[in-house]
Amino acid sequence: METITSVDGTPIAYERTGNGPPLVRVHGTTADHSSWDPVRPSFEDHFTTYVIDRRGRGESGDAAEYVLEREFEDVAAVVDSIDEPVTLVGHSYGAICSLEASLLTDNLRQLVLYEPPIAVGDHETPDEERHAELESLLAEGENEQVLEVFLRDVAKLPPAAIDALRSTPHWQSSVETAHTIVREYAAQGDYEFDASRLDGVTTPTVLLSGTESPDSLNEATDALDDVLPNSRVVTLEGQGHSAMVTAPELYTDEVLSSLGESE
Questions:
Q1: Domain with 79 in it
Q2: How many CB atoms lie within 10 A of CB 139?
Q3: How far apart are CA 120 and CA 94, in angstroms?
């Protein structure tokens, strides 16, 4: 792993592999850089991939106080350390971080955002009762229960998708960093979707949307598509919020095609 120092002095680690133009990946809540492993080999044939561990995970550092905006700066710091325009790919919470990082850097070629959990319409995040449950489980040391409740009741993943995640190597690291799940869920409530700030994001943007994902995520994708001046939606048929794990070939084919890199 290599590291870059973010604005607040926190070291942010990333793994660089592959050959070609740069592509930076930003994982979501419950994950770390290894969550991209099922799809990474196919992209390494087309891109030099930089796969980040967001703060609080793996070899990345952390700060005494968690502030969502520091995550935006972390992503922008990695992007700005690369000497040519970058394709930036974010999943879920990492898609929020990537979207906001696009406002902090001029070094982007393309954006790919997979279902950022932005609260729009009647959907509110976080649910106070659910957040209290997660905090209680964390205080009791029930880290795996924190992970399972979040995936089932917040991310709305079906049992088969949770079982698929449980079988991956990064499951245990997600259990060990359960505190980041609770703090990120709370931070979503402080994030305001301000359309007026985003109409200047002219970077070509692909918005991934699963047909089986919760309505809240599909509506957030539609809201972004309405606001961003240079965006288009790519639908992942039969998939929900974790197609990288549940359908890696479909995910890879759709993303490479949308980026003009399909064989």
A1: 2-123+192-258
A2: 9
A3: 18
